[in-house]
Amino acid sequence: MNQLRQLADRVRSVVAKLLSPQVRNVLKAIWMALVTVFVIRYMVKNWNSITDTIESFSFIVLFGTVAVTILGKIAVSVHSQLITKVNGREFTFRESFWMYSASDLVKYIPGGLWNALARVRLYTNMGMSAASSTKAFALEKYWMVVGALATGALALAPQGVRGIGMSDSMFAVIAARTVLFIV
């Protein structure tokens, strides 16, 4: 294990020397130029399809989608804030929102591991221990999976909440108590 760390430190130092801030800035500029060219080329090539898609949008559905997405980001940020508080570090909502959003962007990089690494790294950079950061991230994912399973079970029940023997008012009371418990 010690040899692996030494190797990682050597690789890190070589990469740091090769990728000075100037080189990194040039690489970033080249990458942004390539992405911009690709997007413009794609838009020019598929302009008719793009305009047809835009014309078929329902602005009510679009507004609803954006609103639900924003509310979801807010809910996950509050969730993240509560879990990190339980693990010994209290962040403001703004910090939690920023850390979640920043680390959420890297989930689109192939490999699937980058979101976890980015979040744990952001937590440690903000003063949490590595163990607490890892535990907080694992708890976040655990509760997201549990919530998704519960939501999916309700959605798949033949008649929603009524399909499991609950009235709408009973469901509203349980939802309100759950929200009050969390807050």
Question: What are the main properties of this structure?
Answer:
single chain; 183 residues; mainly alpha; 0% strand; flat
The SS-based structural class is: mainly alpha
| Overall body shape | flat
Radius of gyration: 22 Å
In percent, how much strand structure appears in the residues?
A: under 5%
What does this molecule look like?
The protein has 183 residues and is mostly helical. Helix content is 80%, strand content 0%. It is built from eight helices and no strands. Helix 4 (59-86) packs across helix 5, helix 4 packs across helix 7 (130-156) and helix 6 (114-125) packs across helix 7 (130-156). It is flat, with a radius of gyration of 22 Å.
Short description:
This protein is an all-alpha fold and 183 residues long.
